[in-house]
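User: Hello, beginner here. Can you help me understand these amino acid letters and fold codes? It all follows right here:
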Amino acid sequence: MTNNQQTNNLLVANLSQISLEKLVKSKLEVLLAQHKEGGRIKNLYDQVLEQVERPMIELALHVHEGNQIKTAAFLGINRNTLRKKITTYKIKMGSLT
């Protein structure tokens, strides 16, 4: 096993033990520290929402083999809302099945 594979296995093992909330909070703390040090962050809310929402939708669509009705029900959103987000995030449906 290569070092890269070992690192990936450790990362996956650690991720299974960390809540999403703690993971997001840690990343936000890093971003806000960079902002304090002069890094320019704009639209933080929109950036965070997109970076969480897009992969969540992509993965849910993949699990449901591109079926938007099942995916919307799984996510707890309306199918029209899902369709709008697919368009907004430019999610390619052909690569999900």
